[in-house]
Write a structure and sequence with these properties.
alpha/beta; five-stranded parallel β-sheet; four-stranded parallel β-sheet; 14% strand; Iso_Racemase_Enz_sf; Decarboxylase
Length: 307
Amino acid sequence: MDVSFLGGPQPQLGVGVVAPFDFALDRELWRWVPDDVSLHLTRTPFVPVEVSLDLARLVSEHETLDAAVQALCAVSPQVICYACTSGSFVGGVAGERAMCAAMVQAGEVPSLTTSGALIEALREIGARRIAVVTPYTKSVTDSLEDYLGEAGITVTGRAYLGLTRHIWKVPYRDVVDMARAAVIGAADALFISCTNLPTYDVIPQLEAELRMPVLSANQVTMWAALRAIGVPAVGPYQALLDPVARRGPAAMTGSEPVVPGGPGADVPRATPEAAFAGPPAPPEGDPVDGVDPKPYPPEDPGPLPPV
């Protein structure tokens, strides 16, 4: 059959993505992307280092970014994003800005990072006090809090797993447990860090339960990259993406006191810093004193529960 009358494929918009070598959630990124946009992913070179501040520095070196950006420019993306939270906050606010400048210089294409996208998203929803969830060790989580502090964001509570590998295997139920433990005090929003931590399906559930906007690393990265080319990200009832969701239950922040017997009275509360122990890790990953370790899920945790 002659299909020449179709005229060929429609012009596509492209988003270039530089990801760390161990990134395993390509499919999750695509879920925020509309059909007329393509993602072009490349990875940083492998280094035999577990997730740590050292790894964050290695995968964000300007020489590494330069090579990755030049490779992506072969397919002419309209914007390039560096999809790694720790790699983009480890150098502080100045380091994140320098990374963006280095990528722009390498490819002459607008560029952004996950951590920069996070600050942009927090400004979009008007959040200045946030709870934080991470899969990281204590030292990496501390570095995230330092970065947020530089940007004028206060961390009201946090929870972390202390993991140094296999972060993409963490089940949704652990993400939910950490979120419940971290959201204490007067938080405007919750941020779930790490582009290798699955979050897409759990965001609407947490927004409904916690009654506040919930942001995740992959979500803000795709939101900011698509916004840069004038395209809205897609996602079911997520406050960052959907103005209707922002006016609904998710718009009600946790700053309101909980009335005994009233809404939210049955939501579990935790101490200001709730750390769950992961698999054996270096001393920097030790859980906070006084918190019982929580075992990391087995290699094959089985089917995920419905959310």
